[in-house]
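TL;DR need structure tokens for one chain.
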Amino acid sequence: MSSTVEIYVYLEDENIDVWRPVLAEHIAENTYRILEQSYNRSDEHWRFEPGDKVVCKMTKLSEGEFLVAVENASG
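>> reply
TL;DR here they are.
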């Protein structure tokens, strides 16, 4: 049974490091599928998009440690 969790996706083309919290379906071990959600491509450019399967790892960010999408798993 899969579960829904919050992961963080890096925003490209920003002046500072920005991470967007998004909902994802846990598929297996450290693999997740980013769920469809509100995503305005004209406002933000996510490193990974809704529908992508990604590998995540716990990563220390300025606000604490979070589950972060680090690479595409569909490949």
